[in-house]
């Protein structure tokens, strides 16, 4: 379940509306039994990011359209998950605060449950809390407590694993190159690990492909090879000059980019997170 306040129509301003529009959509998480925790995290991340517009179109197509396959969407999930957000941040940035008083029950205890398990999560007072609703006639309290403990342990394992990482692990949705799988990207990162940490991967533009072609066919060619010389008068602070180049490289991706030609016969350009600009200084006495 999501709040449904997605920016899907450019000319529609919903900033002055209050409340949730509530979008419900099914998600199938394909987790393999032999996957390690890294693989499970990446798989779930990619599954969720592949959902268009965070699922807001599912209800529109199923209930309000004449889509030819709408009648085939008859499956009903048994678990509903709703993350309400980080209330600490909302309260800290506004003039409202969470009331200490109970609002009471939002619905009758005798109402039929729509889902077997209904899980609502939120962050408040710096802590993540999960509330699990279920039917007492279907599950015993001890069973649900055991389920909650397993869920808590799994979350703690994920947190400990992520906290122990010393570098960012990319997945296909993090980069601009399309049509690459999680396994292929992991292999690509391993192949280029000696060059640095990758920030993004792009295909080459047609002009870049032409420039690369001429460079590969004749490495001694002066085509597209430009040099510039400048004469400076006065004192040059070498350290400040190098620092300025470092700031430029940090700001502009192109200064941290190189061409890579060893991937499936497809030339690519790789943007690295850090790529210092090399400078050579030669002191020539007058």
UniProtKB/TrEMBL annotation:
One annotated GO molecular function: catalytic activity
Gene3D superfamilies: Chloramphenicol acetyltransferase-like domain (3.30.559.10), Nonribosomal peptide synthetase, condensation domain (3.30.559.30)
Alphabetical list of SUPFAM superfamilies matching this protein: CoA-dependent acyltransferases
Biological processes annotated in GO: lipid biosynthetic process
Protein name per Swiss-Prot or TrEMBL: Bacillomycin D
InterPro entries per record: CAT-like_dom_sf, Condensation_dom, NRPS_synth
Pfam families to which the protein is assigned, alphabetical: Condensation
PANTHER family assigned to the protein according to its UniProt record, in alphabetical order: ENZYME, PUTATIVE (JCVI)-RELATED (PTHR45398:SF1), PTHR45398
Residue ranges occupied by any Condensation domain in the UniProt entry: 1-170, 199-284
């Amino acid at each position: 379940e999501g709040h449904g306040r997605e920016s899907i129509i450019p000319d529609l301003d919903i900033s002055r509306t209050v409340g949730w529009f509530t979008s419900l959509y099914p998600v199938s998480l394909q987790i393999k039994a032999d996957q390690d925790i890294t693989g499970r995290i990446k798989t779930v991340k990619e599954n969720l990011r592949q959902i268009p517009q965070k699922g807001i179109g599912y209800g529109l197509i199923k209930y309000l359209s004449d889509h030819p396959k709408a009648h085939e969407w008859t499956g009903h999930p048994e678990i509903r998950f709703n993350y309400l957000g980080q209330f600490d941040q909302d309260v800290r940035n506004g003039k409202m605060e969470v009331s200490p008083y109970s609002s009471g029950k939002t619905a009758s205890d005798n109402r039929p449950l729509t889902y077997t398990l209904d899980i609502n999560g939120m962050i408040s007072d710096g802590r993540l809390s999960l509330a699990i609703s279920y039917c007492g006639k279907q599950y015993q309290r001890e069973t649900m407590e055991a389920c909650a403990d397993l869920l808590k342990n799994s979350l703690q394992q994920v947190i400990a694993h992520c906290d122990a990482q010393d570098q960012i692990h990319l997945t296909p949705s993090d980069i601009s190159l399309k049509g690459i799988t999680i396994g292929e990207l992991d292999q690509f990162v391993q192949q280029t690990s000696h060059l640095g940490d990758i920030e993004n991967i792009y295909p080459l533009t047609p002009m870049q492909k032409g420039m690369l072609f001429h460079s590969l066919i004749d490495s001694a060619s002066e085509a597209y090879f430009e040099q510039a010389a400048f004469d400076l008068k006065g004192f040059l602070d070498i350290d400040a000059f190098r620092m300025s180049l470092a700031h430029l490289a940090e700001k502009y991706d192109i200064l941290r980019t190189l061409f890579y030609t060893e991937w499936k016969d497809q030339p690519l350009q790789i943007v690295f997170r850090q790529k210092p600009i090399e400078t050579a200084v030669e002191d020539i006495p007058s």
